[in-house]
Design brief:
two-stranded antiparallel sheet, single chain, alpha/beta, 2 domains, 10 helices, Spore Coat Polysaccharide Biosynthesis Protein SpsA, Chain A
């Protein structure tokens, strides 16, 4: 396929106080072998020098860059949607600023979209040592807990085949732009982050498109540099959006007979001093926001006009 025939890929990078990592992320992007490509940067009201750093490095690229700055943190979903609107590509590649991408990763992702049934493609993601797997596609438990295939395993090529998965992580997720629009983009209700990609992949699958894990699309991820991994704030945001995901996407019968029993079992297994307070806050937040969540559920069902998918895992 000639360069003129190849699809334009728009890399969408959302910044939020990302100065520590965005430099190495952009330097890795500067080494990608795929063309044509463009970079769309949306800054979510950073209070550090993220924008200055990004602009300085992007000015040296041999491909175009668009930069938009928001006055305050609008959340990952809303900022990503803006990046999609500003983009010109047929393929959108949403990339976290705390990642480093391998030079041939975009080539592999674009190759997966040769199958027009593929709507979303995700990456093989490593921890910073470049050897330990963080993500090789994901699945969802009955109570909404998101799990990663390959998590914390040494990479011995055991996840070396392209495969269909329930979802892929938003740290590095490629989407056909027409499918992104058809599925209603990311839901800003998952504020400020977590579960917008899980929700989106479910919508794509309801539209009968494939969500695939692409092993040759390799990325290193430093993970949760904005909210902090396993902090009280992290647990609150994760569980708040996890519960919203359940209410928005699953039938009442499923919630009563599968989600709630697994939730009760899981609560008996966690460390209460670590998660009890943020979990209770998350429950309360969802009670308060229930009317808004039910409206989002109705709006999604009306947009998709497709049966629910409840192919979750019932074991812990």
């Amino acid at each position: 396929m000639s360069s003129a025939e190849k699809r334009l890929v728009s890399v969408v990078l959302v910044l939020y106080n990302s100065y520590e990592y965005v430099g190495q992320c952009l330097r890795s992007l500067g080494e990608v072998t795929y063309r044509p490509v463009e970079l769309v940067i949306v800054d979510n009201g950073s209070e550090d020098d993220s924008v200055l750093c990004a602009r300085r490095i992007a000015n040296g690229f041999d491909f175009p860059c668009v930069l938009s700055t928001l006055g305050k943190n609008r959340g990952f979903a809303r900022a990503s949607n803006l990046g999609a609107v500003l983009s010109k590509g047929q393929i959108l590649f949403f990339l976290n600023p705390d990642t480093e991408i391998y030079p041939d990763a975009i080539d592999a992702l674009v190759g997966a979209f040769a199958d027009e049934r593929v709507g979303v493609a995700g990456c093989r993601i490593y921890y910073p040592d470049g050897k330990t797997l963080q993500h090789a596609g994901g699945y969802i438990r009955d109570n909404g807990l998101t799990m990663h295939f390959g998590f914390n395993e040494a990479d011995c090529r055991q996840y070396a085949k392209l495969k269909d998965v329930p979802y892929v992580t938003g740290a590095a997720i490629a989407v056909r732009k027409d499918v992104f629009t058809q599925a209603g983009m990311f839901d800003p209700g998952y504020y400020p982050a977590y579960f917008e990609e899980t929700d989106f992949c479910l919508k794509v699958r309801r539209l009968k498109y494939r969500v695939v894990y692409v092993p040759e699309a390799r990325v290193v991820h430093h993970e949760s540099t904005t909210t902090g991994r396993f902090t009280e704030r992290y647990y609150y945001l994760y569980h708040k959006n996890r519960i919203r995901f359940i209410i928005k996407n699953f039938s009442l019968d499923f919630i009563l007979n599968r989600a709630l029993p697994l939730e009760q079992k899981w609560i008996g297994m966690i460390e209460p001093e670590e998660q009890a307070v943020p979990l209770n806050k998350a429950y309360m937040a969802n009670i308060i926001k229930l009317p808004a969540t039910l409206f989002a559920r109705w709006r999604t069902d009306r947009l998709l006009s497709a049966p629910r998918i409840e192919d979750t895992v019932s074991e812990l």
